[in-house]
Amino acid sequence: MGSVMLHSGDCFMPFTCSGMELAIRYASLLRTRPERPRIVTRVGDNGQKEDRLVILRDEPSGGRPIGPSYTDRNEKLKFMQKHGIDVSIVSTLLRRLEASTANPWLDFLSADQAHDMALKLNQDLEDYCSSGPNVPDSPTPRLYGFGLLPLVPGIDTQAILEAVRQISALPHLKGVIIGTVGVGRGLDDEALAPIWAAIESAGLTVFLHPHYGVGNVWGEKDNGHVLPLALGFPFETTVATTRLILSGAFDRFPNLRVLLAHSGGSLPQLSSRLASCIAHDPIVASRLKHDARYYLGKMYFDAVAYGPEELGFVCDVINRSNRFEGDAQDVALGSRSIGSNRMLFGTEKWMSVVENLDAIDSVKGWAEEDRDGPSSDGYKLITLDIIQHDDISPSVNGLVGFCFRLHLHIEKQTESSDNSSLIYSCCY
């Protein structure tokens, strides 16, 4: 039995192969910046100079150290080998801790700069992935990526669409990673409608990850980054996703695949309250085709919730969504396994991820195959060419959840019928 695991994140700026020149150019840009995001050089505890990436205010330890694990593909492959990861989805730019390209992506650049940089970095990421090795004894590449869109204020829609077309044409890029502000007016901005249409048509996945929080509501007491990270990030995702629902985007683009960070924030918990408020508000009561709770079943969620009760609750919210389709009557809730079909899991051995894996193992109502098996929905989320080779095809006999790990069971059509599994991990 083989294992093909999909793991996302873990790539700062590819310094190998054709990515070298671009990575140096981008890093040089960050070093010239007087404010976040920026790269600063400091003397480490060992007395040696080291680069630090600063993206949050008052970063602990002066920022995140940038070492070979961020930049060297050989180090990346060693990491994959150590943890039994055969296939990774990587991203360029700033962060390793999420499967996002960066916080705050390209937001700090002008429209022209962001457009130019996005196209170059997308091609760079494609070169990085395409020039990497294949899984042993398989035509499957070991590296895939999620691309960038130049979503900045003042950008021309055609420039964003050019990036969407570029990403959809690059065989190793399987989705895009975006923030919550769109081009400055949020994700419910009508100017984004052509972008959603193009992404839906291309079959790309949108991974939505927060960065800006919900304003300075944390008081004067120094609590480190606990409040903005534990609450601000999920609240930001909650507001952005709710605005997207209220815009009718999921009615107009029903096949748009959106993956939400941090288990959808507080949206699952507040979804019935949201539905009630919509029903009693004359401005929006007749705007949507379905009850708001229906749309949660159309999305995908990571499992960065840290507790089995929270994961089980999100799973139940997803599972019940069919009860709210159009004029549908009350439908039995059914097995919790159904909800896990749209949650994604993870594998890296950071403390927070170990907590998540322990939580997954403790969710009541999930059978072993729910925790370890994949789903057809999971396959459709990433749309990997992996399962389109002649010797590999999907096996739709499982499901899984939690965005740090999406298992896709596949079996090779060979005499040995060797079973494999793919794992996609992302988020923080």
Automatic annotation (TrEMBL):
Keywords: Decarboxylase, Lyase. It comes from the Eukaryota. SUPFAM superfamilies: Metallo-dependent hydrolases. GO terms for biological process: secondary metabolic process. GO terms for cellular component: cytosol. Residues 152-347 form the Amidohydrolase-related domain. Pfam families: Amidohydro_2. Gene3D superfamilies: Metal-dependent hydrolases (3.20.20.140). GO terms for molecular function: carboxy-lyase activity; hydrolase activity. PANTHER family: 2-AMINO-3-CARBOXYLMUCONATE-6-SEMIALDEHYDE DECARBOXYLASE, ISO-OROTATE DECARBOXYLASE (EUROFUNG). Belongs to the metallo-dependent hydrolases superfamily. This is Amidohydrolase-related domain-containing protein.
